[in-house]
Amino acid sequence: MKRNAIAMIAVVALVAALAVPALAGGAKDVKLVGWVSDSCCPAKNANAEGKSCIMECHKNGSALVFFSDGKTYKLADEKAALGHIGYEVVVTGTVSEDGTLKIASIEPTKKKA
Fold it and tell me: Where are the domains of the chain?
């Protein structure tokens, strides 16, 4: 009886281990050049001049987003992006099926002034 229970647990664990990568398979690796912006005006504020507006909107509850090549990405974690508002950046990370960008690294394309 114990042997059957152990075998059943092993089978369930194996099935679960195989299912997790299949469920996470929608995320794709990306390298994007663009701007940290706000969800209210992502394209309009995707430039150095938009920094003060982004900061004000974010302070008032607007989410930070990433804007690149005409597309807006939700951010999985805003902390990494917060220090790069007002600068064009290169982001590497993953984008999930729902368009959420998980940042692995973020670097300015130019030196910060």
Answer: 27-108
Q: Is the pTM of this model over 0.85?
A: no
What pLDDT, in 10s, does the model give residues 57-105? 999 999 999 999 999 999 999 999 999 999 999 999 999 999 999 999 9
User: Which residues are within 8 A (CB) of 108 and not within 5 positions of it... i.e. 6 or more apart?
Assistant: 84, 87, 88, 89, 90
Fold of 27-108: OB fold (Dihydrolipoamide Acetyltransferase, E2P) (2.40.50)
Q: Are 89 and 33 in contact (CB under 8 A)?
A: yes
